[in-house]
Amino acid sequence: MADILGGMIKIVKSKMFALIVLLAILSTIVQIGSNGIFLHPINIRTILDMMIITGMMTIGATLLLIAGALDLSVGTVGTMAGMMFAVLLRYHHFHWAVALILCLALAAVFGLINATLVNFAKFPAFIATLGMASVAEGVSFLFSGGANVSLSDPFMRNLATGRFMNNTIPFSIIILLVFFIVYGIILSKTKFGRQIYLVGSNPTASRLVGINSRRISYILFINSSVLGAFAGIMFNSRVAAATTLGITDRQFFGLIAAILGGVSFGGGTGGLGGAFVGLLIFSAFANGMFLLRVDSFWNQAIFGMLLLVSLAFDYMRSRATYRSPRAKRKSKKTTTTA
Q1: Would you say residue 9 lies in a domain?
Q2: pLDDT in tens, 177-190
């Protein structure tokens, strides 16, 4: 009985439980405010259907944040890749698979440059990636000439908007779940995943035990750019057009979802399970604003405030962890062992 009670107390005190409670409260408020529309199966499907765009950026942001870095170019790189994809298909008649590979490769180059600026030029990550965001925006305009490009490839359109099981479950949510599961296993069950946590929580100790932090940084920056590119291509396939704005205005959405899910801005803590729940909270919040008819001009300001609130909670959580006696003993033990 004592073991069961202790287990229940542990669950209640966990971050995941707090996130689920927050999601339940948010859902209840919007359900009442929308006269029962929010939890209708069609609206739930809409929420799930739109998660893949932000979800891909959330995965990339989560891994980088855990490693103590961030990427502010992911949305612009995704827009650039989506524009290149549309141009290759419409004007040069590439097969979708060849165009997809080329666009992801271009995004990988941008991730490689980001990592080089951070690791060798010693630029702070936010400065390096913000600069590369401007470069990606310029390249996007070069591809398109500043004009929108229509996109009507049947396979990509079906992948982005199609459903199965009597037209109920979107293909996109299955793709996103597979990505979260695969990356979750890598992060929590592999040596590489453990190295990411160590690099983020204690860079000095990671170097002393022989972990190549530069290699990890390169992999994660390239991964972030490639996932952003995939998100941009999926977004354009969904709306059947590529624009110079694309997913640029969603630049911080992955960061918001990851931090909401308990991933620390200081690095070393969090996981993709919490990030997925954070993504659900963020998507439910965005959908709720639409159902409650919040003026669209307020959206960006509200999302900015949500990011600030998430960062404030992350700061308070980090301070509480740092001050706890157990954390101090653990930090001292890690330093001594290293």
Answers
A1: no
A2: 999 999 999 999 99
pLDDT at residue 8, rounded to an integer: 64
Residues contacting 106, CB < 8 A, separation 6+: 80, 81, 84, 229
In the beta sheet, which residues pair with residue 164?
169
pTM for this structure? 0.88
pLDDT digits (tens, 9 = 90+) for 214-235: 999 999 999 999 999 999 999 9
Range of the domain at 313: 39-318
Q: What's the rounded mean pLDDT across residues 92-121? A: 95
Residue 103 has a pLDDT of 96
DSSP letter at 104 equals H
CATH number assigned to the domain comprising residue 291: 1.10.3470
Of 242, 225, 224, nearest in space to 234 by CA: 242
Which helix (H) or strand (E) element contains residue 279? helix 272-291
The pLDDT value given to residue 45: 86
Q: How do residues 288-323 score in pLDDT, each as one tens digit?
A: 888 888 877 777 787 778 778 777 777 776 676 656
N-terminal to C-terminal alpha carbon distance within the chain: 40
The answer to whether 274 and 19 have CB atoms below 8 angstroms apart is yes
Examine residue 29 and state whether it is found in any structural domain, yes or no: no
**Residue 44: both structure tokens together:** 């739930």
Neighbours of 93 (CB within 10 A): 8
Query: How are beta strands 169-170 and 163-164 bridged, if at all?
Result: antiparallel
CB 80 within 8 A of CB 139: yes
- Which residue in the block uniquely carries the two structure tokens 């997913």? 247
- Distance (Å, whole) CA 13 – CA 7: 10
330 is written with which tokens?
């653990």
Residue 210 has a pLDDT of 86
**Domain presence at residue 334:** no
Residue 226 included in any domain: yes
Rounded Cα–Cα distance for residues 194 and 192 (Å):
5
Task: Please state, in angstroms and as integers, the Cα–Cα distance from residue 172 to each residue in 16, 151, 161, 223, following that order.
Answer: 24, 18, 7, 19
Domain count, the chain: 1
